[in-house]
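Thread: zinc ion complex, take 2
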Amino acid sequence: MPYADPVKRREHSRLYMRKWRAAHPDRDRSGRPPEVRIRTDESRMKDAARAKLARAIKRGEVVRPDECDDCGGVGRSGWMQAHHDDYAKPYAVRWLCSACHGLVHRMPDGEVA
Ligand SMILES: [Zn+2]
Ligand SMILES: [Zn+2]
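Output below.
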């Protein structure tokens, strides 16, 4: 523990942050590079599909089931998550529990939806 004194420690991290910001002028406070914040067509499409689906759920046109399409369970939260296989079809979703949804996104063929 180089700085047992909390005042000195704060001073140290302040100086560190100042140096870090000077060395990385293109980054914001989150430290993420700017390209992460640039909206791609894909991310726009995903957002649009999710928004469309959310509106349909609100209107009662799409009903969120209580059970997972994959395992038939209710998951830990008891709340099914909509998974889009194709964002061009915002209403064609699979309803998955958080566990199954996590598995889908960790599939090695890189399917991310
Ligand atoms: Zn499941
Ligand atoms: Zn998904």
